[in-house]
């Protein structure tokens, strides 16, 4: 039934996920004039207890992917298998169960908390929706326990979001995500709106929660060093497709896709003595519009290796010769001169 | 359970001195409202008007305490001049007393205080029905259009547009003429059916922006049903706008009823309303100004106090208002 063979411990198995947003003109008689190909054939699997980092520049479809995985958007095609079932086929009780088990932490801690609700109501709301998760009498205690777990003062249960700082608000968002004891938490750029010092605290919190509750994370970000810090595996996205996927070490030490190499070469190096030893790759041009992406390989318009083959044939995401992880490039080739060695 | 490197960032400074008292949302709202001085004064004045108008002439089977009623024709004393005196004797006045007809009499000798009180009753009733029913329809249509979007939105908002382009006064005048004969209640219902449009548009706009907020997405991600998202997450955040608009429409209804009565389409005699009193006696302004001034004072007082109360409520419902420690 499945196109790829998922390993036995896969929690989420994403198969060829596609989301095209239609572009229309006219008010009453809508005419279809094209589509924004936000996510175009993404496949990967998330294993139990691991963190899969998803990186890519703005507009490459990271957030749409997050919404698809939460089923906040319906896909154009493709499947996401959870517990052996496609989440887009779920209805009624099964859908509620899935909502309990897959939760999300949002990017902006200022708009992700309802300003009219107290922290207790925000964190405890999932229990109102899923009353079976906690008996009525215990909810308050449970909420206070959650606040304690994420490092907030349980006494602050009656406060409103505006009385907290950005980092504290993000902790509230994490507590809400944890309330139903999910298997998977999708972190949609959870730290990019925070100060660097607070980022570290939140990332460390997420890591310790993962150990404590056996969570699997999909960690979406555009900050390569944060992703490296938290991820076990990393997927690099470009214009709605996965360019390269592999373990932390494979992606950061032995990148094979030109886009990954370019991204890594742009990471600033704190140590001045190492700075000169690295090759900087400067990409020219802009990201093409996702409404009219280039044929074949989507990166070819900015790639220094591009040939006619790249325009004619879409490179599959497969393990390339001479490499040990999957890469969507016809000319995949390990290049280490762009890498920051630790 | 927290790891050592996660200090509780909130447990600092302010908590050591002052204990944070747990209060429910309702208590907080009440506290903030009671601290709003202008709103509290307005509330007192408004309640006073309400009690005065309903207790003095009575309503339905309940008799009022005022000695005259608003239909009994009597002899005109002293040209119907008001007998109310508020200037004490030592200042050269007549002393503080109400007299037989504190607000004077009209040209048929009907006690004008009784008439004004009856008019206030009717005007308040119309105002509340219009404010309540009109706001309810407006919120319902605006919320449905903004939340569900698609065809629901198109149909509802085009329907709203149709109501908006109708010349309000003309339409209401024609229908209200019939409804006015059926009593002030139906008159109010008709006015309400044509004055919800502004609020519907505002509420739709608010919903459109709020439904895209991440806290709404978070609620959807937890499997929250649409009805609960509207009620718990979106509506409370539009409350300020709704309250302001509702109080404005309440005050507007008093004015609109006045205009209709002025044109002769509103409340029919022998019943009366503040608007009717003003319109009937506008010609008497130079000769017997009290016939014009008393109902005018009550119209202004009702419109102003209701607006201030709405202001206070809006501030009270907004937790970001930091006037009270929460």
From TrEMBL, chain A:
The keyword Transport applies. Pfam families: ABC_tran (PF00005), oligo_HPY (PF08352). Residues 12-264 form the ABC transporter domain. It comes from the Bacteria. One of its GO terms (molecular function) is ATP binding. InterPro entries: AAA+_ATPase (IPR003593), ABC_transp_ATP-bind (IPR050319), ABC_transporter-like_ATP-bd (IPR003439), ABC_transporter-like_CS (IPR017871), Oligopep_ABC_C (IPR013563), P-loop_NTPase (IPR027417). PROSITE patterns: ABC_TRANSPORTER_1, ABC_TRANSPORTER_2. SUPFAM superfamilies: P-loop containing nucleoside triphosphate hydrolases (SSF52540). PANTHER family: D,D-DIPEPTIDE TRANSPORT ATP-BINDING PROTEIN DDPF-RELATED, TRANSPORT ATP-BINDING PROTEIN. Belongs to the ABC transporter superfamily. This is Oligopeptide transport system ATP-binding protein. The lineage of its organism: Bacteria, Bacillati, Actinomycetota, Actinomycetes, Jiangellales.
TrEMBL record, chain B:
Its main location: membrane. This is Peptide/nickel transport system permease protein. It comes from Haloactinopolyspora alba. InterPro entries: BP-dependent_transpt_permease, MetI-like, MetI-like_sf, OppC_N. Keywords: Cell membrane, Membrane, Transmembrane, Transmembrane helix, Transport. It is found in: Cell membrane. CDD domains: TM_PBP2. GO terms for biological process: transmembrane transport. It holds the Pfam family BPD_transp_1. Belongs to the binding-protein-dependent transport system permease family. It is a multi-pass membrane protein. PROSITE patterns: ABC_TM1 (PS50928). GO terms for cellular component: plasma membrane. It comes from the Bacteria.
């Amino acid at each position: 039934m499945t196109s790829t063979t998922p390993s036995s411990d896969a929690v989420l198995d994403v198969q060829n996920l596609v989301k095209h947003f239609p572009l229309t003109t006219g008010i009453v008689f809508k005419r279809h004039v094209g589509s924004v190909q936000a996510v175009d054939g993404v496949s990967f699997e998330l294993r139990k207890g691991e963190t899969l980092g998803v990186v890519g520049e703005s507009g490459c479809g990271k957030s749409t992917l997050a919404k698809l995985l939460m089923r906040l958007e319906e896909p154009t095609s493709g499947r996401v298998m959870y517990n052996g079932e496609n989440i887009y086929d779920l209805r009624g009780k099964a859908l509620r169960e899935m909502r309990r088990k897959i939760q999300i932490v949002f990017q902006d801690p200022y708009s992700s908390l309802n300003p009219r609700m107290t922290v207790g109501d925000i964190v405890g709301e999932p229990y109102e929706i899923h009353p079976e998760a906690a008996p009525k009498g215990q909810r308050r205690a449970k909420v206070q326990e959650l606040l304690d777990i994420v490092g907030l003062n349980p006494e602050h249960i009656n406060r409103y979001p505006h009385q907290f700082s950005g980092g504290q608000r993000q902790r509230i968002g994490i507590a809400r995500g944890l309330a139903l004891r999910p298997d998977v938490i999708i972190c949609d750029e959870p730290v990019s709106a925070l100060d660097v010092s607070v980022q570290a605290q939140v990332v460390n919190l997420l890591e310790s929660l993962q150990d404590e509750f056996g969570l699997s994370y999909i960690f979406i970000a555009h900050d390569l060093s944060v992703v490296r810090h938290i991820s076990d595996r990393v997927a690099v996205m470009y214009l709605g497709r996965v360019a390269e996927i592999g373990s932390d070490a494979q992606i950061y030490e032995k990148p094979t896709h030109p886009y990954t190499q370019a991204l890594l070469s742009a990471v600033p190096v704190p140590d001045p003595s190492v700075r000169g030893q690295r090759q900087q790759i400067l990409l020219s041009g802009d990201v093409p519009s996702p409404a009219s992406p280039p044929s074949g390989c989507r990166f070819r318009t900015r790639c220094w290796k591009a040939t006619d083959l790249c325009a004619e044939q879409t490179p599959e995401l497969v393990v390339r010769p001479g490499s040990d992880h999957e890469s969507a490039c016809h000319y995949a080739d390990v290049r280490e001169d762009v890498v920051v060695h630790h | 359970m927290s790891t050592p490197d996660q200090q509780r960032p909130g447990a600092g400074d302010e908590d050591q001195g002052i204990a944070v008292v747990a209060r429910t949302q309702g208590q907080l709202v009440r506290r903030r409202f009671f601290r709003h001085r202008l709103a509290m004064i307005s509330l007192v004045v408004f309640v006073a008007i309400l009690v005065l108008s309903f207790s003095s002439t009575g309503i339905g089977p309940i008799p009022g305490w005022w000695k005259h009623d608003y239909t009994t024709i009597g002899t005109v004393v002293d040209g119907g001049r008001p007998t109310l005196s508020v200037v004490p004797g030592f200042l050269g006045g007549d002393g503080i007393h109400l007299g037989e007809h504190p607000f004077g009499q009209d040209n048929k000798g009907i006690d004008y205080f009784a008439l004004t009180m009856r008019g206030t009753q009717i005007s308040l009733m119309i105002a509340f029905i219009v404010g309540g029913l009109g706001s309810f329809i407006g919120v319902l249509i605006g919320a449905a259009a903004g939340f569900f979007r698609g065809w629901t939105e198109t149909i509802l908002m085009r329907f709203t547009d149709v109501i908006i382009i109708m010349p309000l006064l003309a339409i209401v005048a024609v229908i209200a003429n019939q409804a006015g004969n059926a009593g002030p209640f139906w008159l109010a219902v008709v006015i309400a059916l044509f004055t919800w449009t502004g609020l519907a548009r505002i509420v739709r706009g608010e919903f459109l922006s709020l439904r895209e907020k991440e806290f709404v997405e978070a609620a959807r991600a937890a499997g929250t049903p649409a009805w609960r998202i509207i009620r718990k997450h979106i509506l409370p955040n539009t409350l300020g706008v709704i309250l302001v608009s509702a109080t404005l429409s309440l005050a507007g209804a008093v004015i609109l009823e006045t205009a209709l009565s002025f044109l002769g389409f509103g409340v029919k005699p022998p019943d009366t309303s503040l608007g009717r009193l003003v319109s009937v006696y506008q010609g008497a302004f130079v000769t017997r100004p009290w016939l014009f001034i008393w109902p005018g004072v009550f119209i202004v007082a009702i419109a102003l106090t209701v607006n201030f109360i709405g202001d206070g409520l809006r501030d009270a419902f907004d937790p970001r208002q930091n006037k009270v420690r929460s």
